[in-house]
Amino acid sequence: MSDTITASNHREPRTAEYARKTSETDIRMSINLDGTGRYNLDTEIPFFDHMLSHISKHGLIDMDLLLRGDLEIDGHHSVEDTAIVLGTLVRQAVGNKAGMNRYGHFTLTMDEVLTTVAVDLGGRFNFTYKGPDAINVGKFNVYDAELTLEFLQKFAMNAAMNLHVNVHYGENRHHIHESVFKALGRALRMAFEFDPRMGDSIASTKGVLE
Fold first, then answer.
1. Cys-Cys crosslink for 189: which of 59, 74, 139, 178, Cβ 3.0 to 4.6 Å?
2. Burial call 174-201: b when 16+ CB within 10 Å, e when fewer
3. CB-based contacts of 197: which residues, under 8 Å, 6+ apart?
4. What does the DSSP assignment read for 168-185?
5. Is domain 2-192 in CATH 3.30.230.40, yes or no?
6. pTM exceeds 0.85 for this model
7. Residue boundaries of the structural domains of the chain
8. pLDDT given for residue 6 in this prediction
């Protein structure tokens, strides 16, 4: 396994890129947290591309991703490793978090589904999901539905963040998954944004977020 990470921690823009190759996946990814929501995604898993595009578009995160994985087995390694890479990129790109909101939350409606996502980029990992068990049921083409929670857990772990997802109600499986990824993008956007009243201070009484 080989890992290569380069990052820029300047105030503008906050960017990072990551190349990660294992016996299971080969991933090249870059992000810009201060982007416009432009994305170029090639995972060979169409539903996964669709979900990642919502994080990019609603989070205003520019995202480039080329993924090749062992899809002859299934999509697990590809989705899990992408979450590891994206989380690592976020952790690198936010730098010391000076002037940043740190917290973000969004409640999103998608037809009959209502979903809330809340995040804390405080440097500690937690992932909690509350909602219908239907999020783990079935497939979307080659994408196993259970991979969404796997992705969210590994993303939060590698970004060193608290991530809480609450699907209050809903029935349509596509709507449930899509609402989660859209709300996640919106919550991240709020957390990443700078508060001009804070200047270069850090949103913690400790004076540091690690």
1. 59
2. ebbbbbbbbbbbbbbbbbbbeeeeeeee
3. none
4. EE---HHHHHHHHHHHHH
5. yes
6. yes
7. 2-192
8. 53
